[in-house]
Amino acid sequence: MTTNQPLELLAPLSGVLLALDQVPDPVFSSRLIGDGLCIDPTSQTLCAPLAGVISNIQDSGHAVSVTDDNGVQVLMHIGLDTVNLAGKGFTRLVEEGQRVEAGQPLIEFDADYVALNARSLLTLMLVVSGEPFKLLTPEQGLVDVGQPLLRVTPQAVADEVKDEEGDALFSKPLTLPNANGLHARPAAVLAQAAKGFKASIYLHKQTESANAKSLVRIMALQTVQGDTVQVSAAGEDAEAAIQALVTLLAEGCGEAVTAHSPAAAPVAPDSSATMLRGVCASPGSAFGQVMQVKEPALTFAEAGKGEALERAALTHALNNANQALQALQEKAIGTAQSEIFRAHQELLDDPALLEQTRDLLDQGKSAAFAWNSATEATATLFQGLGNALLAERAADLADVGQRVLKLILGVQDRAWDLPEQAILIAEQLTPSQTASLDTRRVLGFVTVGGGATSHVAILARALGLPAICGVPAQVLELVNGKQVLLDADKGELHLNPDLAEIEQLQVTRQQHVLRRQREVEQASLPATTRDGHHVEVTANVASLQEVEQALSLGGEGVGLLRSEFLYLDRNRAPSPEEQAGTYSAIARALGPERNLVVRTLDVGGDKPLAYVPMDSETNPFLGLRGIRLCLERPELLREQFRAILASAGFARLHIMLPMVSLLSELRLARKILEEEALVLGLTELPKLGIMIEVPSAALMADLFAPEVDFFSIGTNDLTQYTLAMDRDHPRLASQADSFHPAVLRLIASTVKAAHAHGKWVGVCGALASEALAVPVLIGLGVDELSVSVPLIPTIKATVRELDLADCQSIARQVLGLEEAAQVREALRLYHAATVETSLVVEH
Ligand code: PEP
Ligand code: MG
């Protein structure tokens, strides 16, 4: 039963009473959290000052609130900044929701430990529900635990916060930056700010919600750093409330915070602060002016205006998004952009996403709310799986999510008003934004989030825009118009470039342009060294378009068809006919004189395939990847073999197995291939080879060689497994270097073993696409270089500048060096002395 009878609050501790004004902490002394008093304790057990229910007790045990039946809410906070002790020194004696009597012990604490390890032991008792009170003792002096201290007059239960009505607006989700979540201090700042608005306002964390005007409710959410929260508001000033509170939350509600990015951990800023470092997402360099770009926050109502209406709005938006993506795809046909827009179209059609959205529409939610919740939830799921590639697909999902959301809300995309020679700076760019950048004005971009393997990075490379990602958030503070130099090759943004640096950059760029022109003009010439040694230069491809492009740039065949990429963004397995059609089309494009090396599905590790569900693994790069996965699901492999075999005769067909680490894997796969060939009535088997990308295969190459037709060395994986460095790790990117002598030694011994058995060896990892590496690979005896399509002319031109005998000598030299940097330096000197001199002479 509730009454308005005055209520006496007892001293929760023995100690010395102080007025709040004397507390050396403005959040408390300003009464932002609530009015009350302070005790410098001499006892070590905090007791309930009134009877009621424990409305909140922090996990860390340093603060507790009791609410009585009349709604009087009293918060006790032991010590200052004790949240930082993370529970050490405190023992909770009660649980949230438990009814307690006045005087009942609530928390025990170790006063010595707290006094030594926190800012102060001063303990606050605050009437946070705001009722007026009278002091029953002198304002200062000694008090004993249990002694009556305050007389509170309960108010008629105020209808302080109206229930949120159907027309609540929701903010976009944001990540809490506060090191200890919303503990008392930031929660108080937030509640105080929320009280400044008439709207009813709620803070949401997953499925829990708290009245944002209630300090205790906010604390009861027990948020921690990195939690995703949302603000909702209903009422006349809802929009303003959301904007103000989201800004406040992002800025840490009065606490000093550093911007939190869920993406790759930013690399520490250069101490001189004249340069910021990130990771190269797309090579090149540019000198231009800073242009910060930001997406405006979208707000929308949770409740729908009728199910039929909301369904129609969703369908309309999905159709329009589909049409827009189709148009973008057609405009970019044959390019990486086109593939990405096709993948986005698939997401529009994703059954799980649509089912989640429709479930919410069934519950009366608005189309915007339903679609947004479904896409956000799935993106969060992707991000939380600990897989870099899936986390990057979350960015694609967020991009599609925004596209549809804007269409539902009728928000027009405003074109960015870009200055000339802009270097865009953003927290994160979406693939759509990247694809539609006006490259006449934009010279490059820099993002805090993102990764080198993201679709944004792929697009930047396709557009030829230099870009770096994983840059510290302080880049977002640079003023628009500031002149900066972006050296993406080195992953650097120079904030105060001097004239010499800028001029050097322009000279280098001009040389690049001239060299590229010449290389493309001569792309059809064979890759033969000056002394007559021919090296086959083939292409790494993932689509028919890339095969066609490769041929036009002088590619002599396909050294690696990454078959999993043909279907990476598909929700359903391609039919056997479709697979056979794809391989045959590629083989036909190459013709009977050229090699086609089809690698069987290399799924797992950083490459999940939506239609091949896999259990999550703690360490997917060391788990069921590549051939291991296919042998676990032999039907998958059989079906793929059948589809590949259907293209036999159209090109010189080779089948290659990825991630082989054991002889038994090769033998089992060969048996399956032979069985399938027999069923199809083929008299001749295609060539069968393996990738050398696991050290065990490289070390046992002499035993593998008699049983294969060829090897192709995957230096990307061979490097990560040899050096035990994750190939996608943003902080190890500079050390996980394929130029490491350990990797080169494995290449050397593999080639030796293969040649002893008359088998050829290719390199299809990214090392083969580096002009600097060409002399050492040729010197080690590599027969084929399978390279990324745009680099075919460069690699062929580089081969033509070399002498085999020189290459052999430089290869011998670098095998004896200690680390990758030394190898690079030795090759740079060699390159400067040979290739570059000859270019300068000719120009
Ligand atoms: C490699 O590992 O070097 C390779 C070519 O395979 P992928 O990059 O597709 O793993
Ligand atoms: Mg590999």
UniProtKB/TrEMBL annotation:
Its cofactor is Mg(2+). It is found in: Cytoplasm. SUPFAM superfamilies: Duplicated hybrid motif (SSF51261), Enzyme I of the PEP:sugar phosphotransferase system HPr-binding (sub)domain (SSF47831), HPr-like (SSF55594), Phosphoenolpyruvate/pyruvate domain (SSF51621), Phosphohistidine domain (SSF52009). Its main location: cytoplasm. Residues 169-256 form the HPr domain. Its EC number is 2.7.3.9. Keywords: Cytoplasm, Kinase, Magnesium, Metal-binding, Phosphotransferase system, Sugar transport, Transferase, Transport. One of its GO terms (molecular function) is phosphoenolpyruvate-protein phosphotransferase activity. The keyword Transferase applies. Residues 25-129 form the PTS EIIA type-1 domain. It catalyses: L-histidyl-[protein] + phosphoenolpyruvate = N(pros)-phospho-L-histidyl-[protein] + pyruvate. Belongs to the PEP-utilizing enzyme family. This is phosphoenolpyruvate--protein phosphotransferase. It comes from Pseudomonas yamanorum. The gene is ptsP.
